[in-house]
Specification:
Blueprint: E1 2-5, H1 9-15, H2 20-25, H3 31-38, H4 45-55, E2 63-66, H5 71-75
Antiparallel strand pairs: 1-2
């Protein structure tokens, strides 16, 4: 099972006026959270909540589930 980003979240934030400098300076998101997004590590629920609030979107707008293998194969 894999959950991956659909898009570059940092680019979306920047397009909405939230540069990494602004996010850090105003203590909206910390450097460790920004680094997670840079390296495609999934965010915590609290971090994801903050990003979705800033972007006015749903989690499914920025992440997607990609199954490893079909469920039928797992039953055998």
């Amino acid at each position: 099972m894999a959950i991956k980003y659909k898009t570059n979240v940092l680019a979306l934030l920047k397009n909405n006026g939230y540069t990494t400098y602004k996010l850090r300076k105003e203590k909206i998101l910390g450097e460790s959270t920004l680094q997670k997004m840079r390296t495609n590590i999934l965010l915590s629920w609290a971090e994801l909540n903050t990003v979705c609030t800033l972007l006015n979107c749903q989690p499914g707008d920025i992440v997607e589930f990609i199954p490893d293998e079909p469920i039928e194969s797992q039953a055998e």
